[in-house]
Design a protein that fits this description.
Length: 172
């Protein structure tokens, strides 16, 4: 599951309820602020997903991964535009290692930001048959109408919502 916390303003209790009710094993969050970190902890995220790699930052640049299984080889990087992206490896029983990443390129909300956004998507790891499989989760600031996102998916990824024919969406 992935959630953009909207500069930390998302309802932590709702997120924790969704994690619990849907038996979520991995949660990627973007726009993760110190206040959001505190609210998620108070709402009980640590009891459900005890492993965490995070960088809570002011404004919209922080990110985190929460997991039911341990996160290994974790590292933080900064995408063009200043957004933190968190990457780690999960070792899943019966599956092996899977590299997971919370993605958040800058938004192309003005003509001046389109280069930053395109550069952010272009620097995301391409799918490969060498090594562990990769899972990208996050706020791509894009839809399938955008060629940059289609190029990334076309490297060998599958869009999860498209693969299962449904998406869990909560707004409000």
């Amino acid at each position: 599951m992935t959630v953009n916390l909207r500069v930390g303003g998302a309802d932590a209790a709702t997120i924790v309820r969704l994690v619990r009710d849907n038996r979520i094993d991995l949660l990627a969050v973007q726009e993760y602020t110190p206040g959001a970190r505190d609210k998620l902890r108070a709402a009980g995220i640590d009891a459900l997903l005890p492993y965490r790699l995070d960088d809570a930052e002011p404004l919209a640049v922080g990110a985190a991964l929460f997991s039911r299984v341990s996160l290994e080889n974790g590292h933080l990087s900064v995408a063009p535009g200043g957004f933190v992206e968190v990457t780690a490896t999960l070792r899943l029983p019966g599956v092996g290692p899977v590299v997971v990443r919370s993605v958040h390129p800058c938004a192309p909300y003005t003509l001046a930001h389109q280069g930053c956004w395109r550069s952010g998507l272009d620097r995301e790891p391409r799918a490969t048959t060498a090594g562990a499989p990769s899972l990208l989760l996050g706020d791509f600031n894009a839809t399938l109408d955008h060629p940059a996102l289609r190029r990334l998916i076309g490297s060998g990824y599958r869009d999860a919502a498209d693969a299962v024919g449904a998406v869990l969406a909560v707004s409000g």
